[in-house]
Amino acid sequence: LTIRAGAYADELVKTAKTIASPGRGILAMDESNATCGKRLASIGLENTEANRQAFRTLLVSVPGLGNYVSGAILFEETLYQSTVEGKKIVDVLVEQGIVPGIKTDKGLVPLAGSNDESWCQGLDGLASRSAAYYQQGARFCKWRTVVSIPNGPSALAVKEAAWGLARYAAISQDNGLVPIVEPEILLDGEHGIDETFEVAQKVWAEVFFYLAQNNVMFEGILLKPSMVTPGAECKERATPEKVAEYTLNLLHRRIPPAVPGIMFLSGGQSEVEATLNLNAMNQSPNPWHVSFSYARALQNTCLKTWGGRPENVSAAQEALLIRAKANSLAQLGKYTG
Ligand code: 13P
Question: How far is the CA of 184 from the centre of ligand 1 (A)?
């Protein structure tokens, strides 16, 4: 029953299971310097390395965070960074029982020949970068590509997204990193939930086709899908029950039970909305661990509460812990508001 075992096979399975453990999910804190700059600007701070370090020190040092968070995705700068107090951020995470992860994609660029769509770069040199990140303590990684509904998606864009993810996943596994496979279907648009569902079915069919073709070991990957919701500008909104029904239907049709964990992105949903939707999806047993890998839906209140002021650090950490705990309960289907 060998499925392209590879030197790291057992470790990959173990890492994936640790991340997909009951009541826990992922803190996405891997904003690129440009995106992190936007977050800092929203609280009136300059986008300096010192400010990024201060905020990320705050996040990883939340006492007790490891009870609710099993993995943290970092941007390259943070993987090699120390806290304000001079301790390696990777070591702080490991002491908290949190697996360090790394964003390995190199971001989006226009996809020539498409309808104004994009593709994700980063395959060149990925093997050596992944090996170096492993040496630095990373055990999982993320590659985010996007699919736009209003701009298509064209068959070309979907194929490129799926193929890129599959190549990335195979290379990551070869170097000991559990790949998070993330084709984000963007929320933007006026389309209804049925259209999102149709697009998601196509995207995931292709992603798994190419993952199989590249001999990726499904037991050693994690997925990061968008929830199936109406477009952000669609007038008809969906209840958490409806989002859960559509999203679970999609997962059942497209995702093999060999995959250990499905860690949703929040994609611009409000903090509470993201928690309620996750909770609704965990009202009955699922074949996979269904959990969170949120950035904005974990960090928003925390960031605002902090506001860049040292005297607000504890209150900001408390705010993060409240969201982490709420989503932990939602992972267990026990969130009551
Ligand atoms: P959001 O939860 O803010 O969508 O970010 C998750 C993420 O890491 C997207 O790649």
Answer: 9
Pocket residue to mutate for ligand 1, from 31, 168, 296, most atoms within 8 A of Cβ: 296
Q: Which of 222, 265, 291, 327 most suits a substitution to test ligand 1, by most atoms within 8 Å of the C-beta? A: 265
Contacts of 197 (CB under 8 A, 6+ apart): 228, 246, 249, 250
For residue 3, the number of C-alpha atoms closer than 13 Å in the C-beta half-sphere is 17
* Mean pLDDT in residue range 7-32: 97
The Cα 205–Cα 64 span in angstroms is 39
Q: Which residues contact 6 (CB under 8 A, 6 or more apart)?
A: 12, 173, 174, 217
Let me know: does 160 contact 203? Beta carbons within 8 Å. Answer: no
* Sign of the dihedral through C-alpha 56, 182, 173, 175: negative
Q: How does pLDDT run across 108-141, given as a tens digit for each residue?
A: 999 999 999 999 999 999 999 999 999 999 999 9
